[in-house]
Each structure stands twice: as structure tokens, then as C-alpha cells.
């Protein structure tokens, strides 16, 4: 008997239809579900831990087991009441596009293997370049697994172009609100602690230009080589955009690479208000955006844009002999020359199909709606005697805490109370609402980038928050 994985045509079809039905039903009934799940390692071990089975079982039985046990033990991050971290609203067309890309197992590394895949990455990259006012002819970019990999790809490139082989004296600057993936990337690159400057932010969580200038000047006096600044265009905590024009001026004067991490906020460019907040974003040398966040794509798709595509090919091109037959000509891009991965899934397809299907206007309306929704939430909170805004609605992120007028709670009491509100909300599973820390205060944070979220969803969540807060206060008495 020969080993084989084959199913008959009928078996494949009925199995596939079943999965499509399950996914479509999930999308259709999101509102009826609870967003939160929680389980301990022990509970999960009890369900799943076993040796790899030598003998298989019926495909449908495995699928049923997965539907009964795996899916319900996963947070519904696309749920309208999933407010925490950066939600993944996704969209159905892209979900199916991903199934096509996987179903046909399209290799998206070299031109010759899949010219259409490479072409669609070029085309969609051009859409993004134009959106951010980057030069379409000279500029370029690459889809990655996410924002973390886009930031890593950017910093490898920045170091290669600015420092060449010797980066022993190189210094890199970022703010204390910059996303942790940047620090991870810096560590992956092998920089020593002494080569990293994490600069404090002002009361609005923006980088202090004065502190940046001082740090650069001091490092130059020490004989070091300032080579890169990482700005945030939409911090994950508060949606804050660093003063991009001011930073761009400094980077030009000081010959620093200007990287902008727009993984969270970049997509706000699609709305008028967001575009205003992001002014100066087109002055970056490299820009991370993260389509699996606010461009409504399913995981995984991140993106790095650069002003000059040759920076990427100069950094990542290797010419091994075993790839000589799939090299195209100059204009035919091999995306394995633009980044770290050789074998790459066909990420451009979902981006392409969703924009072709819905039109860019739908994306613009959705992002505009999200920003307005957060503004409306801010108004509701401001009108209430119970709530205090800690960081106002900025690119659809808002931070607030329960602190009723007249109760005169101490800071530790307010922290504990808000922690309890989040804890009880998570236990109720009604909304995914967790805390963050701002100015040493425990605050509740909402990231409102799901177009399915309505003001009524938020009001329902606030009602529950109030109820939990009153319970906690009553228990204390
Ligand atoms: C989410 C995020 C990242 C990391 O992106 P992943 O897609 O999670 O890898 C980087 N920077 C910012 C500002 C983010 O919000």
C-alpha cells in the first residue's frame, strides 16, 4: 500500500462545503456569541494532550471535535464587543481569499514561480504607496506576517543602508511608548543595551523633541553614530502620533533613518481626520502598516513601505545557485529579495480581492466611522459623573477610568476598582475589556476599530461596567 493523503472529489467537496458553512454561520451570528473565552493549561491539556495517533480517524469526526473544542476555546477577536489590544475585525472576502491562496498553495517568493502573485503584490503595494504619498515609481514594499516582522525588516534595512557592516557605534532612538516589537527587533539585530535610547514622552505621550535633540547631540560628542529614529504613528496604548514633521526635520539634519511604526494607526490615513493627524507620514524613509489590523484583513498580513525599493534589494538579495532558474529580469520582482522569507504565502491576494470587491470607499467609510464612534464614546464618558477620561479619543483609541465625583477614592483604590471592573467583565465574558497603565494609573482602554461595533454595544458595556463597579464598592462597605 502506498502512503497517500488523497480524498475523493466528493469527499473533498462535502468536507469543504461543511467548513465554508461553518465559517459563514460564524460571521452571521457574531452578535449572538460572547467574545471572551478563558481556560487553564490544565483544562486544555485534559482536552487535547495525547501522543500523535498512528492510525487516523474519519475527517468529519476530527472536524466535529475541533468545532466542539478548539473554536469555542478561542477569543472572538472580530466580535463587536472585543475592545482590547488591537482587535481583528477582518472581512469575509479576504477570509475566502486566504482559503484560495492556501487551497492552490501559491508560492509567493519568486516571479517565475507565480508571476501573477508577484504582480498583485506590486499592484497592491502601489495602492499603498499612493495612499501614503510615497513615490510609486521609486518606492516599494513587501507584505510580511505582521507589524513585528515589518519593523524588523525596516530596521535591518536601515542599519544596512546607514551603517554598512560596522554598526559598533550605531545608536537607535525610540520613545517609551513605541511598540515592544521594535525593542524585540533591535535585540534580534544584536544591538547592545548601550546602543538603544528609549526617550521619555510628554504628558500627551508624544516624543519630546528637545530630549531627542539632546540625546543625539550627546551621542555625537561621545563619538557614536546616531543612525535611526523610530516614531509611532498611532501608539498602541493611546493612538498618539509623534510630531512627524519635527522628527523628519531632525532626521534630515542629522542624517538619521526615519522609520515610522504605523502598524496601529497607519490606516487612519483613509479618513480626513486621520490623515490630518498623520501629517508628515510621507517624510519617513520606511513605514510599517499592518493590514490585519485597521485595513480589516484576517491574520497574517503586515506591510513595510520604503521610499526607495533598491534599499530592500540591496539589503536582502542573495543569489544562491539553486534559485538561478527562477530569477526573472530586472522589472520582475522576486519578493524573496525584498525581505527575510523565501517561501511566502500569497498575502497580496486577500488585500487585492477585498479592495476590488468592496472598493476603497467602503474602507474609507469604515475607518471614518470608527474614529467618529470613539469621539462619540468620549462625549458619553465626559457627560457622566462616574467616568474620567485619561487619554481622549485618538485614532479610535480611548482610555478612561471609573472615578465617581464625590467618592474621593485614593489612587490605589481607583486602580483596584478599575482592575476589578475589567476582571468581572472578563469573567462575565460579555466584553473583551482589559486595562493598561498610563501615568502609573490603571485605566480601561477601548480600541474601536471594528465597523460592526455600534454605540449601543458600547453603552451596554458601560452599563455592565457601572454595575460591576457598584458591586465592588458595595462589597467594600
Ligand atoms: C500591533 C503593533 C505592532 C506589531 O504588529 P504585529 O502584527 O502584532 O506583529 C507593532 N507596532 C504597533 C504600533 C502595533 O500596534
TrEMBL record:
Modified residues annotated as N6-(pyridoxal phosphate)lysine in this record: 293
Protein known as: Aspartate aminotransferase family protein
Gene3D superfamilies listed in its UniProt record: Aspartate Aminotransferase, domain 1, dopa decarboxylase, N-terminal domain, Type I PLP-dependent aspartate aminotransferase-like (Major domain)
Keywords: Aminotransferase, Decarboxylase, Lyase, Pyridoxal phosphate, Transferase
Cofactor(s) required for function per UniProt: pyridoxal 5'-phosphate
Organism whose genome encodes this protein: Tenacibaculum pelagium
Secretion signal, residue range per the UniProt entry: none
Record GO cellular component, one term: cytoplasm
Coiled coil: none
Family, similarity comment: Belongs to the group II decarboxylase family.
PANTHER family, sorted: GROUP II PYRIDOXAL-5-PHOSPHATE DECARBOXYLASE (PTHR11999), MIP05841P (PTHR11999:SF70)
GO biological process, one term: carboxylic acid metabolic process
Record-level Gene Ontology MF annotations: carboxy-lyase activity; pyridoxal phosphate binding; transaminase activity
Amino acid at each position: 500500500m502506498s502512503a497517500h493523503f488523497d480524498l475523493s472529489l466528493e469527499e473533498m467537496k462535502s468536507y469543504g462545503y461543511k467548513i465554508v458553512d461553518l465559517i459563514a454561520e460564524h460571521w452571521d451570528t457574531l452578535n449572538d456569541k460572547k467574545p471572551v473565552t478563558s481556560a487553564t493549561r490544565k483544562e486544555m491539556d485534559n482536552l487535547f494532550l495525547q501522543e500523535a495517533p498512528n492510525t487516523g480517524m474519519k475527517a468529519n469526526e476530527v472536524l466535529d471535535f475541533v468545532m466542539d473544542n478548539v473554536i469555542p476555546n478561542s477569543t472572538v477577536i472580530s466580535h463587536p464587543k472585543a475592545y482590547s489590544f488591537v482587535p481583528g475585525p477582518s472581512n469575509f472576502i479576504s477570509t475566502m481569499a486566504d482559503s484560495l491562496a492556501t487551497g492552490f498553495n501559491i508560492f509567493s517568493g519568486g516571479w517565475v514561480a507565480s508571476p501573477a502573485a508577484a504582480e498583485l503584490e506590486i499592484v497592491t503595494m502601489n495602492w499603498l504607496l499612493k495612499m501614503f504619498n510615497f513615490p510609486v515609481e521609486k518606492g516599494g514594499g513587501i507584505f510580511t506576517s505582521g507589524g513585528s516582522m515589518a519593523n524588523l525588516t525596516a530596521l535591518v534595512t536601515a542599519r544596512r543602508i546607514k551603517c554598512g557592516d560596522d554598526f559598533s557605534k550605531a545608536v537607535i532612538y525610540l520613545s517609551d511608548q513605541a511598540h515592544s516589537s521594535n525593542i524585540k527587533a533591535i535585540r534580534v539585530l544584536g544591538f547592545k543595551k548601550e546602543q538603544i535610547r528609549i526617550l521619555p514622552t510628554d504628558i500627551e505621550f508624544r516624543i519630546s523633541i528637545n530630549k531627542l535633540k539632546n540625546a543625539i547631540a550627546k551621542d555625537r560628542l561621545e563619538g557614536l553614530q546616531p543612525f535611526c529614529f523610530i516614531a509611532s504613528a498611532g501608539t498602541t496604548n493611546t493612538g498618539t502620533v509623534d510630531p512627524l514633521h519635527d522628527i523628519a526635520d531632525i532626521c534630515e539634519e542629522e542624517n538619521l533613518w526615519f522609520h515610522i511604526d504605523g502598524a496601529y494607526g497607519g490606516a487612519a490615513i483613509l479618513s480626513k481626520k486621520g490623515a490630518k493627524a498623520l501629517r508628515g507620514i510621507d517624510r519617513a524613509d520606511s513605514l510599517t502598516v499592518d493590514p490585519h489590523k485597521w485595513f480589516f484583513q484576517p491574520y497574517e498580513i503586515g506591510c513595510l513601505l520604503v521610499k526607495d525599493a533598491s534599499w530592500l534589494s540591496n539589503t536582502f538579495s542573495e543569489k544562491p545557485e539553486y534559485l538561478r532558474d527562477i530569477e526573472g529580469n530586472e522589472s520582475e520582482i522576486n519578493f524573496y529579495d525584498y525581505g527575510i522569507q523565501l517561501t511566502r504565502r500569497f498575502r497580496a491576494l486577500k488585500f487585492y480581492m477585498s479592495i476590488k470587491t468592496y472598493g476603497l470607499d467602503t474602507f474609507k467609510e469604515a475607518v471614518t466611522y470608527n474614529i467618529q464612534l470613539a469621539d462619540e464614546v468620549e462625549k458619553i464618558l465626559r457627560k457622566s459623573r462616574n467616568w474620567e477620561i485619561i487619554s481622549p479619543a485618538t485614532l479610535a483609541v480611548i482610555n478612561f477610568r471609573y472615578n465617581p465625583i464625590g467618592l474621593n477614592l485614593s489612587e490605589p483604590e481607583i486602580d483596584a476598582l478599575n482592575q476589578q471592573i475589567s476582571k468581572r467583565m472578563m469573567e462575565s465574558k460579555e466584553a473583551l475589556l482589559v486595562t493598561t497603565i498610563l501615568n502609573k494609573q490603571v485605566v480601561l482602554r477601548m480600541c474601536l476599530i471594528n465597523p460592526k461595533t455600534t454605540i449601543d454595544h458600547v453603552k451596554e458595556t458601560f452599563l455592565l461596567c457601572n454595575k460591576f463597579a457598584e458591586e465592588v464598592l458595595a462589597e467594600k462597605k
